[in-house]
Design brief:
The chain is built from four helices and six strands, in the order E-E-E-H-E-H-E-H-E-H. With 179 residues, it is of the alpha/beta class.
Length: 179
């Protein structure tokens, strides 16, 4: 959670959960599924989905603890009674791709970032009980009187609506292929 109060006067912000203290309004824009990415030769690569128990003691390349993806993943692991083994902490997708290629661990990726980490040498696995991260739009109502701010807010809402529809189609297609 970032403290925006020291960084100026913001009208709109797109972020994960937790920015509501600075803004007076918010709405969920998008929920995206989280996948585990493993090297193709990894012991989990042949599975159709993963359970938290599959990752108990597995070296992980994870986002920073303030990242919603990290929080949701660790909550799932705690709930299952599993202890994650953090090998590397990084929010940089390019670095995570290299760490993965060097066999330094497995990593998590959201649906929208999947193309950054997926390659012929990796396998993306869904969790048996789907794991999600949320993207919110935050704004201050008193600043929406600015025409550009109001238009930009509406543009973001429409873009994320379309993004959600594309994700639903992609998920439905993947489920059809698995049947």
């Amino acid at each position: 959670k970032a403290d925006l109060s020291d960084h100026g006067n913001f009208a709109i912000c797109v972020a994960g959960a937790g920015q509501s203290g600075y803004f007076d309004s918010n709405m969920l824009l998008h929920k995206e599924e989280i996948y585990l990415v493993v090297p193709r030769r990894h012991r989990l690569a042949k599975k159709s989905c993963v359970q938290p128990e599959d990752l108990d003691g597995e070296p992980l390349i994870v986002q920073y603890p303030t990242h919603e993806l990290y929080c949701n993943f660790f909550a799932m692991m705690r709930e299952a009674g599993c202890t994650p083994q953090v090998a590397i902490t990084s929010n940089d997708l390019l670095c995570n791709q290299k760490y993965l290629a060097y066999g330094m661990g497995v990593t998590l990726v959201s649906m929208q970032s999947a193309d950054s980490l997926h390659s012929a040498d990796t396998v993306m696995l869904p969790f048996a009980r789907p794991l999600y991260r949320s993207v919110y739009l935050y704004w201050n109502r008193h600043m929406l009187h600015e025409p550009l701010v109001a238009l930009f807010r509406e543009h973001l809402i429409e873009e994320f609506r379309q993004l959600s529809q594309r994700q639903e189609r992609r998920t439905a297609a993947a489920e059809t292929r698995q049947e």
